[in-house]
């Protein structure tokens, strides 16, 4: 089974950049909100999530909380990409259980390297 990564980003430009960056290492699925992401995770097996924080309906903070509270997704790697550049946001997402944090403007290639490293560390090989 190929690796599968879910990108949760409401901005189409950032979503497309992440999709292009991650496509060489995994099949990419996309969602525009945390709520959409949870619906997607209910029906599709995913090995990692890359999420923004500031989104409508359900933000990235709540998404991370829900992922970590559910035994199905508790160990899934979560990488955060966000316009929030303050240390408080970084500390909060790491406290909630995110595995990595990238402040915008970030390098999509660096995000890919982080995702690939997390997938390899968890033994999720293609």
List strands and helices in order, with pairings.
Elements: E1 4-8, H1 12-22, E2 27-31, H2 34-43, E3 48-51, H3 60-69, E4 78-82, H4 87-96, E5 100-103, H5 108-121
Parallel strand pairs: 1-2, 1-3, 3-4, 4-5
Helix pairs in contact: 1-5, 2-3
Description:
The protein has 126 residues and is of the alpha/beta class. The chain is 44% helix and 18% strand. It has five helices and five strands; from the N terminus they run E-H-E-H-E-H-E-H-E-H. Strands 2-1-3-4-5 form a five-stranded parallel sheet, sandwiched between helices. Helix 1 links the parallel strand 1 (4-8) and strand 2. 33% of the residues are buried. The mean pLDDT is 92.
If helices are DSSP runs of H or I spanning 4 or more residues, what is the number of helices? 5
- Can you list the strand order of the major beta sheet? 2-1-3-4-5
Number of strands: 5
Secondary-structure class: alpha/beta
Rg value: 13 Å
Strand residues, percent: 15-25%
Unreliably modeled segments: none
- Separation of the first and last Cα atoms: 6 Å
Question: What overall form do the CA principal axes indicate?
Answer: globular
In short:
It is built from five helices and five strands; from the N terminus they run E-H-E-H-E-H-E-H-E-H.
């Amino acid at each position: 089974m190929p690796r599968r990564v879910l990108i949760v980003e409401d901005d189409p430009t950032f979503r497309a950049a992440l999709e292009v960056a991650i496509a060489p290492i995994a099949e990419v699925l996309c969602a525009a909100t945390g709520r959409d992401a949870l619906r997607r995770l209910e029906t599709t097996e995913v090995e990692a999530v890359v999420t923004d924080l500031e989104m409508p309906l359900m933000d990235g903070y709540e998404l991370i909380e829900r992922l970590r509270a559910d035994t199905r997704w508790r160990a899934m790697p979560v990488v955060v990409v966000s316009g929030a550049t303050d240390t408080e946001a970084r500390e909060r997402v790491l406290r909630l259980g995110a595995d990595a944090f990238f402040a915008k403007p970030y390098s999509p290639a660096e995000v890919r390297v982080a995702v690939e490293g997390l997938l390899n560390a968890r033994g999720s090989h293609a």
